[in-house]
Design goal:
Length: 145
């Protein structure tokens, strides 16, 4: 399987991941993320236990890249504290903006989300990939100083 097929398969699998696309019963925080360029709009729901992300989910509509990126992010942040989650958002956004090199450390930190690195070569889709990550960053910035 070539890299392009792997990217396509993972994108389709994650964009249709129902485990992360649902309402949370008792979210601590919910934040709307909106991309006016394409109409993607997600509500990110986060349930906290102190500073630990106990659970997270999203609702709303978005393209396959936006949904896949959101789902991958949710898988990555569950069980992490807000400082680790903030660091992951900075690494992911840095990767998409080509400010952070893709190396073994980044691959280990971001896991499957690294497949979205190629989105950096599609300027019109960058905002789709980073929508959820910016939304999570907004939650952290507003609620944890």
């Amino acid at each position: 399987m070539d890299l392009k097929s792997l990217y396509t398969d993972m994108l389709l699998q994650e964009s249709n991941n129902k485990a992360n696309r649902r309402e949370l019963e008792s979210p601590t925080f919910s934040e709307l993320g909106h991309n006016p360029n394409c109409g993607d709009e997600i509500n990110l729901h986060v349930e906290m236990d102190g500073e630990i992300i106990k659970d997270a989910s999203f609702t709303g509509e978005g393209c396959a890249i936006s949904r896949a990126s959101t789902s991958m992010m949710i898988d990555l942040i569950k069980g992490k504290n807000i400082h680790e989650a903030k660091e992951l958002t900075e690494k992911f956004i840095g990767m998409i903006k080509k400010e952070v090199p893709v190396d073994d450390d980044l691959i280990e930190a971001l896991g499957d989300a690294v497949v979205l690195e190629n989105v950096s070569n599609m300027p019109a889709r960058v905002k789709c990939a980073v929508l959820a990550w910016h939304t999570l960053s907004n939650i952290i910035d507003k609620n944890f100083k």
